[in-house]
Amino acid sequence: MLSRVADNLYWFSRYLRRVENTARLLGACSQLRLDLPRQVTFDLMPILRTLSVDALFVQQHGSEAQYSQSQIMAFSVLSLENPSSLRSSFHNARSVLRSIRDVMPQAIWDTVNDMHQLLEGQGAQMLERGREGDLFARIVDDGLKLSGLLNANVSRDIGFQFLRLGASLEQADMTSRIIDAGASGLIRARHGDELEKAYRSLQWAAVLSSLAGMQMFRRHMRRQVSAEAALSFLLQDNDFPRSVYFCLSRLLSVVPRLPHAPAVERQAHRVVGLVRNADPVWQAANNPALLMDEIQLHVAALDQAIAEGYFRQ
């Protein structure tokens, strides 16, 4: 397979996962905001910080006192100047797909075009009318449909392995970023509020829900939602397919099926070791965002090793 085609398959899979996870996170936050009492401040800014686009947003909208939550939502969904927005990620996925249409089922292109028409034709109207929940639900459904089509209709050749590689890496990265957003404080209760602990639990429940993990959390952890329990489940669970450890382990299972690239395997083992050896109780009591930042740096280094090992020879 040409390295250009492999690179495009890898990034197409990454962009699809990025779109789905961003829609899940924004949808869960939108629902959480509706459920909170008025005395609690809800802030979407941590989402922009975890995606490293907060400085760009402030540059466009002014200081913190001048922006609104609706502006953050529009920036996260529709802004083409935001490289992490739903619209930007989807434009990138669609552009990549054009160059690999000959190796992908026609149904993939049809579904991607349906998503394109939804975002371009109705996205702004749905946000303005308070129907963002419907928009996010539709994007998530189409993302799951695409995942199903890829798994059911694509031959298990080397191209499929690059699709798996991209999906595993992106899901590990997005799970760490969603945890980071929750740990950074989407909810700000007044200091001393007797329900402050309950609000924190509600915030972590929203993180679990954004990753479709609440039911599996209850089934396997059999505990009330807390920071340490949620961190343990989303970081280290062996069976939940969106946990960071599960995704990185799946990536390691793909690497032997690809051309030999020792640097990729070494870097993958480094980040797996970091996640496996983390102490969720200690992290929850201190600052989980620092660990998430370290994981994201290791994931970025792994992406660099993949690019050098497979696409830039």
TrEMBL record:
InterPro entries linked: ATP-dep_Glu-Cys_Ligase-2, DUF403
Domain DUF403: 1-311
Pfam annotation, one family: Alpha-E
Lineage: superkingdom: Bacteria
UniProt cross-references to PANTHER family, sorted A to Z: BLR5612 PROTEIN (PTHR34595), SLL1039 PROTEIN (PTHR34595:SF7)
Name the record gives this protein: DUF403 domain-containing protein
